[in-house]
Amino acid sequence: MTKLLLHVCCAPCAVYPTDFLLIRNYDITLFFYNPNIHPFREFQKRKESVEIFAENHNLPVLIDVQYRLTEFIRSVVFREKSRCSVCQQMRIKETALFAKNNGFDAFSTSLLYSKYQNHEEIRQQCLDLSKSLGIQFFYHDFREGWKIGIESSIAQGLYRQSYCGCIYSEQDRYDKSLRKKGKDNGEHDRSGYQQ
Ligand code: SF4
User: Fold this and answer.
1) Which architecture characterizes domain 3-163 according to CATH?
2) Helix (H, G, I), strand (E, B), or coil: what is residue 25?
3) What is the tens place of the pLDDT at every residue in 125-153?
4) Is the CB of 90 under 6 A from ligand 1?
5) How many CB atoms lie within 10 A of CB 188?
6) Which of 169, 168, 175 is nearest to 191 (CA)?
7) Is the CB of 191 inside a 6 Å radius of any atom of ligand 1?
8) Which cysteines in this chain are paired by disulphide bridges (predicted)?
9) What is the predicted pLDDT for the residue at 185?
10) CA atoms within 13 A of residue 144's CA, in its CB half-sphere
11) Protein residue closest via CA to atom 2 of ligand 1
12) Which residues of 112-133 are buried (b: 16+ CB within 10 A; e: fewer)?
């Protein structure tokens, strides 16, 4: 049985990948490492939701309880436009490293479920880390289960957030003038995340 560390960005996004892997007999551990979630109360809500999800499914879960706002902001400041690449890399790298150093056979991420993320870039970042660290990466296009995941997360009563995570995306979500500007520039729209 393959021992797999699954990075989870939030509980709703973890639903479909978790079911997919369990049906195929993977021995999975959930890994919540998301310094990108702000502000603190939102971080707490998403963390608690993942804990509830893990408990309901009787799954082991590892939670990074530290609220790493400063660390995150320092890593994206002055490169806000490319912040998502930095953000994804930060979370995936920590997952791959943890998997490598703690006896896991492979790693993957629920980021591959989201229609609002840059799927191909995430896949490539995972492949590169897999190669450089010498740990297997499990790839699947979990977006195929987009609708199923949403319906199931609602049925399970999981907390569903209204923006991607960082304070920049919170502004994108609620500042109408920014949303319009982003659309006009053809930017990737993460503002409707998890609605
Ligand atoms: S919009 Fe989402 S993916 Fe991009 S930096 Fe913010 S939290 Fe990370």
Assistant:
1) 3-Layer(aba) Sandwich (3.40)
2) coil
3) 999 999 999 999 999 999 999 999 999 99
4) no
5) 11
6) 169
7) no
8) 164-166
9) 54
10) 7
11) 164
12) bbbebbbbeebbebbeebbeee
For atom 3 of ligand 1, the residue with the nearest CA is 84
- The residue whose two tokens read 């939030």 is 10
The tokens describing 8, both together, are: 């989870």
Summary mean pLDDT of the chain? 93
Ligand 1 pocket, mutate which of 38, 42, 83 (most atoms under 8 A from CB): 83
C-alpha–C-alpha distance, residues 8 and 27, integer Å: 15
- The position carrying tokens 């450089």 is 132
pLDDT tens for 150-191 read 999 999 999 999 999 999 999 999 997 766 666 555 555 554
Q: Is 112 in contact with 143 (CB distance < 8 Å)?
A: yes
Chain position carrying tokens 């989201």: 114
Distance 106 CA to ligand 1 centre (A): 24
